[in-house]
Design brief:
- The chain is α+β, with helices and mostly antiparallel strands and 606 residues long.
- It has five domains: 97 residues, Baseplate protein-like domain - beta roll fold (Phage tail proteins - horseshoe like beta roll fold, Roll); 91 residues, Baseplate protein-like domains (Phage tail protein beta-alpha-beta fold, 3-Layer(bab) Sandwich), CATH 3.55.50.10; 150 residues, Jelly Rolls; 63 residues; 79 residues, no CATH class.
- Helices cover 16% and strands 39% of the residues.
- Strands 1, 2, 3, 4, 5, 6, 7, 8, 25, 26, 30, 31, 32 and 33 form a 14-stranded mixed β-sheet that branches. Strands 10, 11, 12, 13, 14, 15, 16, 17, 18, 19 and 20 form an eleven-stranded antiparallel β-sheet that branches.
- β27 and β28 form a beta hairpin.
- α2 packs antiparallel against α3 and α8 runs antiparallel to α9.
- The chain is elongated and about 105 Å long.
- It starts with 5 loop residues before the first strand and ends in a 6-residue tail after the last strand.
- 38% of the residues are buried.
Amino acid sequence: MAFGDTKIVINSLTYDNHSNNILVGVRKHPETEDSQTAEVVLANADKRFSALNLRGLTAVISYDFGSGYTATPTLTVITQDDITSGGNYQTVLTLVGIPDLLSEDKASKNYDHPRTDTKTVKDLLTEVLDGTAVSSSVTAEQATTDSFYNFDGTGDDLHAVGESRYIRDTTVTTLSFYLKKVGSPTGDITFFIRPTDFSWTESKVLGDASTLSTSSVLKTVTLDTARYVDDEVIFYCEYTDGTASNYVAIAYNSAGVATGENLGLLYATGDWQYFSDQDCGYKFGYNIDGVDCFTHTTSRTATFDSESTLMDTYQPGDAFKIKEGESKLDVVNKLLNFVADYKRVESDDEVHFFTISTSGNSYTSDKGEFYTHTNRKALVVPNKIVVKSFDEDDGYEGSATSAASFALLPITGVPVRAYVTGDAQAASIAADVIAKLEVNSQVGSDLVPMNNHEQIWNFVTVTNNWNGSTTTGNIAYLNRVSIGGQFQQFFSFGRQARRGIAGIKPKREVKLEHPPITDETIIRWGMIKEIFNIIDENTDDIYQRLNIIFSILETLGVKVDATDNDLSNNVEKLLEGQIDSFSLLVDGIMQRLQVTEQMTLPVFPK
């Protein structure tokens, strides 16, 4: 093995570029935190691949960076093209990685996370990726109270007080009410739950009234048998041993605060009476199945290498929802919006979460040895984030700024709403958002020899002594190329943040919508000139330019021979900056292309 050696292992079979020479090369191997793909060219002169169906098989590409092979994350073969052109026989594979497969894992139904669920962001990331629902116990409550009903045996002799409401598709496990004692009452206090038609009843004795405090305290019983409920029910507290001086009191609110609910009273002399303008104070516990909309998907392992403060403390509550058809990848990214942590899939095929690194490899050029180097300085936009509580009554609020950018051009982003425990937690979330915006502000790119094994979000320092510039940042886009004597990697820093920040579009993100092309289509120069200007101006990665050009031609139905001598020579000129992308197309790919006011592209059947 030596520097530049490359191999791909498909279904335990190894193809390389130095011993069996079946691997022609890796034409592109781009990665972001949300995508890992590759395009691999294999020699097929002996027709070994023509009779094989490689689609769906897993593959691992490894590179020798100078000290032996280093594996990259596992990919899956999606397409296999067996190509015969100019006496060359090749098989071209298109592969995708775990992030891309996560984007195809779709939620089978809606999922609404309960407000009172105590699962943290870390818990939910683990559960979503694993695909196995983790049940938990949560609560529903009405905690606003300002008055008391007294079980004192006077007047109509109040026996029971409770709340009537609809409970949908829920297994109730606990019942709670706010109680206190006055004087020295004795006798059992019992909690009940039953439907309004009294078709069944569950009850549990709380205990003797003498054990109560003289101040209002939430008292809870656990039902002996958890009761599944999908009905209008009344849950209530019953006490019948009170006297005028020794009794139990239950808290309620004298004005209605719970929509669709009613306070219920039961006297010794009559039936239940319901009041829509009052509500009893209560809480009930119930079990939920957990995130059960990804149970049909492939299980993935979440690994937490390092954690921000909020990762295992912040509880999103019902701010976290999943819509039917939403991808597992999107859900993971949604959860990461709450914290300062990042993710990437590594060679162990696990999804790793970590705090951003601030040290790493260095690249130095004394005489312009870099193939390309861009040093961009960008403002952080927005540079102030305000986080507010979902509950307006709480009034919690916190903010953070990116100091340098805010001093130059203060721009405040759209307020972020979250369930927070106070101003401090709101400020912590705001600081995490700002931290990501700072990382994601685009600050440069480089095309360099593949001397080091880099991964997404690695921190690198690039020094160009020729012009005196030094660029530091975390890699957000990485592309490796090992073909035709080229052993290079292109990386760029930063990307647009997930929160819809209207920043500068990353230069690597060039997307073209192709109009339908039919046989004998006449393409005017004005129709295509701007496309190549966009490619040259917005794509630092030379091989990304080539791939865009090839994709245009393939859409037109034009066969492209990547081993053609004329093409190879012009690729070298493109790398050296001697020609632009359009010249490459004209001189190196389509020898029969005629460029005048009109340009005729011959269209060959695929």
